[in-house]
Amino acid sequence: MSNLDTRPAPTVCGGRQDVTAQPVRELLAAKQVPLGESTIVRRLLPNLGRRMVGAWCFIDHYGPDDIAQEPGMQVPPHPHMGLQTVSWLHDGEVLHRDSVGSLQTVRPGELGLMTSGRAIAHSEESPREHARLLHGAQLWVALPDGDRQIAPMWEHHAELPQVTGGGGLRATVVLGELDGAASPGTTFTPLMGADVALAAGTDTRLPVRPDFEYAALTMSGESEVDGVRLAPGSLLYLGCGRTELPLRADVDSAFMLLGGEPFEEKIVMWWNFIGRSHDEISQAREDWASGTRFGEVHGYDGAPLPAPELPPVPLKPRGRTR
């Protein structure tokens, strides 16, 4: 998924100095952002108060949207570097195309994982014949310096491991490991992502790692995470220091639990690029504009996205939080 902001703000984030070693309960508000022709997303990372959770650096939550009479998601070809994109659906389908030749329809409960490495381009669209509802999340993971120049690749995993618990908990492990179950998706830093479904009446605890920082993104229903009731589309930052996470639900609900070891490196994130300096971002923009490096996406009916103008001043380093 692309950041379609025509005036994206450059952001420097990462580093451990602003990571609390204690449990916290910090509720973060979403920003409403248009995506393509008919989709509005709730952008939760980067946020005014927080920019990363482990290596997770970008979170969009969208839907449920009734697109029966709409084209649905239509995101033209656009570039990425220095990151992974994670496509996760609760309803609908998304057709992925990329410049390494991948063509894949991603459906609910399936992992679409694109590693941009040094450079890739892709598009995302609802198929011409699509389901009535579209509901999901798009997330980015920052690549560490030692891996960000690798060759780009696409992974699709239709079968993912699950963790079940007494009292109505069922968690699908999207990335990383949770309670002994490991996703087949490739990771480059210690992190995890899981879709946690809670049946009405659930009152349980989920094992977590005290050295990871965590956040909970509510997908549907109203769950209670560590005593905080969450409406759909909200993000609760939890910090570090827990060995288990109390969970309750009075109605059927679902949330994504995202966590990881705090990311050591400072990164510069602008538009759809993650680098380490203003000059590196500027060069990537020039390469996309000139049609070099990122390759070509074949089959999408439409022109690629043009890159926005860079800000007139050099990037200023900032930490994980404001």
Describe it for me?
This protein has about 325 residues and is mainly beta. It has a single domain (about 10-260), classed as Jelly Rolls, CATH 2.60.120. About 5% of the residues lie in helices and about 50% in strands. It is built from one helix and 26 strands. Strands 2, 14, 15, 16, 17, 19, 22 and 24 form an eight-stranded antiparallel beta sheet that branches. The protein is globular and about 55 Å long.
Quick rundown:
With 322 residues, the protein is mainly β. It has one helix at residues 278-290, and strands at residues 11-14, 23-28, 31-35, 39-45, 56-66, 74-80, 83-91, 94-98, 103-106, 111-115, 120-125, 133-142, 153-157, 162-165, 169-178, 181-182, 191-198, 202-207, 213-220, 223-225, 228-230, 235-239, 244-249, 253-260, 266-270, 273-275.
Keywords:
single chain, 322 residues, mainly beta, Jelly Rolls, seven-stranded antiparallel β-sheet, globular
Q: What overall form do the CA principal axes indicate?
A: globular
Could you tell me the radius of gyration in angstroms?
19 Å
Mean pLDDT: 91
- The computed structural class is mainly beta
SSE order, one letter for each helix or strand = EEEEEEEEEEEEEEEEEEEEEEEEEEH
Counting H and I runs of at least 4 residues, what is the number of helices? 1
Poorly predicted ranges: none
